[in-house]
Specification:
150 residues, alpha+beta, six-stranded mixed beta sheet, 4 helices, 6 strands, 20% strand, globular
Amino acid sequence: MSSEPFVPPDFVVPLRLETPQFVLEPLGPQHNGADYAAWSSSMEHIHATPGWEESKWPRSMTLDENRADLERHAADFEGRTGFTYTVLSPSGDVVGCVYIYPSKKDNFDAQVLSWVRVSEAELDAPLWEAVSDWIESDWPFERVEYAARH
């Protein structure tokens, strides 16, 4: 593991990405109920999403375990060691998540993962495209691992 910070100390972490189809904002415990409903209704769909095929998550969890997970993601965000965003519909419903964390692979600076709930599956490619453009334009990474959508 590199001793370099994940993002430079002077980097201003974006707190929002807004498109006509969805809004990204930092994930936190305030999203617990809606986040839990989104992923727990879509576990098979998430496992079939590019980048998630080998993941141990999602797995069955209680609402309290999910809250602890969201608190961990919020602490990572605050500590600038990883950045997780909830994906909200224009009406404010949780439709997915985006994760930006250090890559475990030497040839990448960051790994990005995203998922959308099965009922919003048509947003997967637009989310991938918007986040890919955002990472390129607003983030300090040169080499990003983010499974392509076709």
